[in-house]
Amino acid sequence: MGIKAALPKYELYFYSTVLGLAMVWAASWIFQVSSSNVNRKTFKTSVKPGWYYFGRKMDTADLEWMMWFSTFKAHILFALSGHVLFAKICSMLAPQHRSLVYLVYGLLAVWTSMGWTYVTLILSHCILLYSISLVKIRWLCLVTGLCTLATFKCEPFVSWQIDFVKGDFELRHILFYGGCGFTIMRCMSFALENCGRKEGNYSILELLKYNFYLPFFYFGPIMTFDKFYIQVNRSDMTRKEGEMWTISLQGALHLGVVIMVDVLFHFMYIVTIPTDVKLLRHTSDWALVGLAYFNLVYDWVKAAVMFGVINTVSRLDHLDPPKPPKCITVLYVFAETHFDRGIHEWLCKYVYNYLGGKHTNVLEELVATLCTYGVTIVWLGPSPAVLTWAFFNCFGLNFELWTAKLVSMEPFASLESTMSEATSRRIRAIFNVFNFWSIVLYNILFLNSLDFAKLVAKRLFLKGFPITTVVVMFVTYCLIQVIKETERRQALIYDPDPSKEKAE
Q1: Which residues are in coiled coils (predicted)?
Q2: Statement: residue 504 has pLDDT above 50
Q3: How far apart are CA 304 and CA 301, in angstroms?
Q4: Total number of domains in the chain
Q5: Count of Cβ atoms closer than 10 Å to residue 179 Cβ
Q6: Residue 167: predicted pLDDT
Q7: Is the peptide bond before 221 cis (omega within 30 degrees of 0)?
Q8: Is the CB of residue 420 less than 8 Å from the CB of residue 435?
């Protein structure tokens, strides 16, 4: 049945009410656990003094978030402010040379922060992949790129390359791996696009402009070369009506989200609690399930803010960067599960869609997914958590196709055709509930720990059965129906219902 299947309004109001109450209920349990265990010994290293006047301590367990808004803040704001300033001057005086200005400023910024030996290392990788791209053999470019990427994940290559960065400053390791990893992915995109070019080759200068664009250099997102090349060389510098207002609003929204997360960390220790397995065993089912859900939502918020700030700067440069990642709340299909749209688009274009075709053939889909997650493992590093996460997500993606194939066969196809669209939507939502929690469990395994994921699964499906299981699944069902209604309305905006238009 189509995505435009509608449900009665009173039913949707009921789902929204149940969902809102459940969120408040779960949050109250987490708040209670946080407040009653604030002085716990295992919390001392991560729960530190925060708002003195309110007597609240702050969860500082997420080192990445803390670095972004303490150590990183001054450096990043300074570097990006300089980029915006020089880009604005260039766009006013010589807009046709703006891509060259981005290259010069990016090179100088990387050189200043990491040293000339690091710049030399990056340039060597660019030259290597550029040389391979001249052969115009796709598989050779991909294999060379992946082998180069693997050198940052295994010894002795890692130790040898990291010695190129002198000094022992706090950001050294993070900037090193970020800059090198994204550089290889960008170089592979350039090489693969160059293979697809029928006449001639792109110049190495275009690769350097693409790679050393500072907002994307250390932390992404990845924009494929074909899109970057068109947008950065576009002569039209005019903006749409209200575009600057939208960009300003996005900047203000990111600031508001940062403040909201800061408030959250003072009242709910959602990052620290999952690290204390002993405490988790004595925590209620509702608090445990809520922790699993809120951890994933927080991880999305963190990624959305990081990419959002960078994307705001790139929009000022008249670029259209990849959108922020999809929130875990709206993910109930494995095919839509991705936290980084840039990497997702890269993988889909060069691996998944290239090998999978129309994604209707079971064997082609299996090969495409295996290769896609193989590249992801090389990108993230082949640790046990990454391998387990990749295996389950790969299985989930293929299982969806197998199920879709089965449902399209008799007698299921005839059975569904006899149902109303609303009934079909309700039945599909029931199956989506199990999909949703599979996605949650697989991802908390990757983001938190195997012990936390096992404990949540045990409470949800074994110890908590039947009360916790039924209640949580029903609340999840309500969530999925609310998501489906949002998707339905969005679909009607882009493709209005002809029957409704005729009636009007």
Answers
A1: none
A2: no
A3: 5
A4: 2
A5: 22
A6: 60
A7: yes
A8: no
